[in-house]
Amino acid sequence: MRKKIMAVVLSCLTFLTLVFSSFAVPLRASAVSVDEMTQVAVEIITRNEGTYGSINRNDNGAVSIGILQWHATRALQLMRSIANADTASAQSILGSTFYNEVMTASSWNTRTFSVAEGTAASNLLTTSVGKSKQDALAFSDVQGYINAGKKYGLTNAGVLVYYAELYNRGSGVAARILSAAKGSGSYADITLATLHNAALTDRGNSSGYYTSRLNDAYNTVISLGWGDASVTEGTSAQPSTPDTSDFSESYAGTYTVTASSLNIRSAPSTSASKVGSIPNGATVTVSSGNGSWAAVSYNGVNGYCSMDYLKAAAAQTTAPAATTTAATTTTTTTTTEAVTTTTTTTTTTTAAAETTAAPSQTTTAETTAATVQSSVAVVGVADPTYASIYGDVNCDGTVDAADAVLLQKYLNGCVFLNYTQLSNADCQRDNVLDTTDVTVIMQYLIDNLIALPVV
Prior knowledge:
- The chain is globular, with a radius of gyration of 25 Å.
- The longest helix is centred in the first third of the chain and has 25 residues, at about 130-150.
- Helices cover about 40% and strands about 20% of the residues.
- By secondary structure, the chain is of the alpha+beta class.
């Protein structure tokens, strides 16, 4: 009898051991949402980039800050968004001189920090608003990396998360490693192990500098059981309540859409879902904004639109009449963020800064009128650091005909583009924007090109 009892006990123990050991093996996920992948990719990247208060005062000629080490003018944009959301704290922490620079500077492409400035910036970044802004921006940026991977045809969740880590080092680096992993096959066939091996043996890791970081990304994906998981669309990790803490009613009014078609999104982010669109020339009511995004209402649809494509209605202009100065041949330089174009005109008209669509958003290009040659090639505009999805000129998360139209309008001098838009438009990675880039986008749309950029 004792032998039978012991046999039963041993059988039970064996069964329990097998049950508990199964929990030690990562469960395989059959499908993972884009937002879930984004959240994990953000965690992987930030482990290796920085903390909320990290400051690199001179990172190859310009400052880098925060959890994703946003560089140069991207660092300026982040600090300005924090300052807009909590003006009193920003003024107190930064001091009047530094605060005024943050609110008015157009570029930090060569801006480095002193020790005192680095300390002040770190203190601002680690406020509750500073952390919230960094979380939102990191989520938006990294989801752009993943969407870029999807454009190649990657469908494996683990591969896409790992690709996001590679893309954070540079889109060119990621494209090179992805091409090596693909070999003679297709992008859809790339496995996590193949991509990891390609990254470890890439020429950029010849010294083994990135090995620890790459292993961290690989092991994290494996631990989640995402090595062979497919991708689903979802918003599980996206904040349910849009962050509009830096929105102001000073932007309220009626605006006209200048884009060929302007998306209305559920939140002020290009990663947020699309809830509607507004055609070119239509008027839209804005209730508040922050200079980059506006809370809008159009035909019963409420949401958020990029202010880059909204022009204040004429009734909102309160500036005095512009003064006109005649000249026989006057050379006018028009500067739009990172772009400098020199043109010649016979009349220069200068209007007061109050004619801009929103306060604190005045640029030289907005207040100086000049004739622009149609389809002129613009040199020195594209920095891969700012690119999210090549070809996605309007930054709506997809590449379509609207992007080609917007780029052509820019070349014709009809619209202005921000840093990310300019970098996304450089589809040949030659640091020149011209009609060839428009053609490349169209070739991609009719499947003559498998992926962008073309290098």
